[in-house]
Amino acid sequence: MSPPSAGSDLLKLQATVIDCRRCPRLVAYRQRVAQEKVRRHREEAYWGKPLPGFGDPAATVLIVGLAPAAHGGNRTGRMFTGDRSGDFLFRALHAAGFANQAESSHRDDGLRLKDCYITAAVRCAPPANRPTLAEFRACRPYLVEEIRLLCRLRVVIALGRVGFDAFLKAWVEAGRTLPSKRPRFAHAAEAQLPGGVTLLASYHPSQRNTQTGLLTSAMFARVFERAKRHTGRGVAGR
What we know:
CATH architecture: 3-Layer(aba) Sandwich
Helix content: 40-55%
Oligomer: single chain
Structural class: alpha/beta
């Protein structure tokens, strides 16, 4: 079991993230997008704020993405919710038993994660989906704190090379160590981190990657099946 304070500390961290205004460029962009909207969502109220991580505070699996989508998470108020990347991700999570449903359209749609926590390297939607190095650095303390609070972690799934590199930096800043041979990104790459944590890499489920076939549903599903095995959930009788 996770310490009794883990859940409450994560809630405090989530509230801190939502109030963050560290990066002027990102603040201006996320708010402008929320005001201007796009035609297909013109009647909706956009979230327009930073997005906290969410999921099971006792999770053994952590998923690290890049940043919210301008008209996905920045609109709905929850990571990977309301866009094609999220559709792909939550179908895989549901099939592997980490989510109670395969769809995620808005933050009050009843989605619940089991044994899994989702976060990102940057918490605000960035212009052209490209945070600056300074913005990565400004946001990293939130990921560092999540790593410290999620004390039951056994598997980390990093989505995309940028999410992979951002996680490694946060891992070290959280006081953890890396193997002597630094892990390198490739789809389905696996590395054992000191402390009994397995790092799995996957191509990001972006619309470009999934529509071109660079990442298929079968490829993605295999990553989550491996995660289950590493947590013991994929073993018969557990």
